[in-house]
């Protein structure tokens, strides 16, 4: 699966509120698609940073009461436009937020490659994110797009960084519609294109190398 999304930094929380209540969004949103979720994301790697060096992100995220393990790789970006391949596996054990087992991905080719890459090395927590996500799906008439506003913090042993950003993810339809909607909000609310994912920003804090498009 390829994830395609736009990312924009929001300069202040008041602007985030205005976007959430934007009349255009309200007019085209899908019924009952609005929700607010607290999310906790934990990223894991070996002590040597083998996964980051190979452009791979291993994330376990609690989304409300749901836990999902994800692998993301082959990240690319062009300004605010981010694309990457990913697989997601739902899991039922909160212990995975502390010590995940790479074997949960054994059914996929990329998962087997990562299991071999990690070998007997221990996976360690390299960063955590805690944020409130407000999201809603909209139907432009040509495409289904999920709009998310995230406010929270990136936490690493070397330092923290705030999160206040807008994400627009293409669920179905045309990439041009996604770009058009992103341009509309960028101009209306004076948003800054975010070339770095949360994960890339966290890696900069930890001084580990990764391509800037990974999330």
What does this structure look like?
With 215 residues, the chain is of the alpha+beta class. The chain has one domain: Hypothetical Protein Pfu-838710-001, CATH 2.40.320.10. Helix content is 24%, strand content 46%. It is globular and about 55 Å long. Mean pLDDT is 93; it is low at 210-215.
Summarize the SSE layout with pairings:
Elements: E1 2-9, H1 13-20, H2 23-28, E2 35-46, H3 50-53, E3 56-63, E4 66-78, E5 81-91, H4 109-118, E6 123-139, E7 144-156, E8 159-172, H5 175-189, E9 192-193, H6 198-206
Antiparallel strand pairs: 1-5, 1-8, 1-9, 2-3, 2-6, 3-4, 4-5, 6-7, 7-8
- Tell me how many strands there are: 9
- Give the helix level as a range of percent: 10-25%
Overall pLDDT, averaged? Answer: 93
Unreliable stretches covering 5 or more consecutive residues: 210-215
Main sheet makeup: 8 strands, antiparallel, barrel
Order of helices and strands: EHHEHEEEHEEEHEH
Write the CATH architecture name: Beta Barrel
Q: Helix tally?
A: 6
Q: Looking at the chains present, what oligomeric state does this protein adopt? A: single chain
Q: State which percent range the strand residues make up.
A: over 45%
What's the CATH H-level homologous superfamily?
Hypothetical Protein Pfu-838710-001
Q: What's the number of structural domains?
A: 1
Key words describing this protein structure:
alpha+beta, 215 residues, 24% helix, globular
Nutshell version of this structure?
This protein has 215 residues and is an alpha+beta fold. The protein has helices spanning 13-20, 23-28, 50-53, 109-118, 175-189, 198-206, and strands spanning 2-9, 35-46, 56-63, 66-78, 81-91, 123-139, 144-156, 159-172, 192-193. The protein has six helices and nine strands; from the N terminus they run E-H-H-E-H-E-E-E-H-E-E-E-H-E-H.
